[in-house]
Amino acid sequence: MNKIWIITKRELRSFFNSLMAYVMIVLFLGFSGFFTWIFGNDIFLVNQASLQSFFGIAFWSLFFFIPAVTMGLLADERKSGTIELLVTKPVSDWQIVIGKFLAAFLLICITLALTFPYYISVAGIGKIDHGAVWMGYLGLLFMSACYISIGLFASSITGNQIVAFLIALFIGIFFQLVFGLIGSGSLGLFGGLMNYLSIGTHFESMARGVIDSKDVIFFLSIIFLGLTGTELALSKRNLFN
Description:
Helices cover about 80% and strands about 0% of the residues. The protein has 13 helices and no strands. It has helices spanning about 1-15, 20-35, 45, 50-70, 75-80, 80-85, 95-115, 115-125, 130-155, 160-185, 190-195, 200-205, 215-240. It starts with a helix and ends with a helix.
């Protein structure tokens, strides 16, 4: 566990040293804040104490921001050759993967924590469903963890950050949009399967304040598959070195 934490701190420090963390946080807060409070389906237009507008914006903002955060976690190290130095140290591939995953996840946690003033402000405006708010944040964390694992996998199979970004977006768009669209236009078992594979289906359920075991199982399954795929990609690369 200590080795994982060392890798996590190293990666988290690199985010802030390269300004990646600051850029991501400022862009996310500016974008989500603008559309939550000022433009479009904002809180004042809805005329009720709710953070559903924010969760709707964050759902899409994080979808685009997370691949940008993860694209260099392994791709950059493959390109520079530093991954070779890392794997020669007394750490396993799993420890490398989990350490990098936790670093990106902690960055998302910090970013979402900085939106708590939204919550406090809305709670001061009127009566708010606190359970729905906390479940909404939990849904964003689960969704973010899924896309971080997908982004890590994309970063593990290429040495080009832009390619890793595009691969992560390509895979993610199926879970974010395509499966839901197919499911909404299909009937029976196939339609139910497509809806189940849609991240939006599970996120919307949690954002309404409902937590179901099938939602948690879905998110954990995607996270596990993404991290396992990343570990396998690293292992395969090691076999040829």
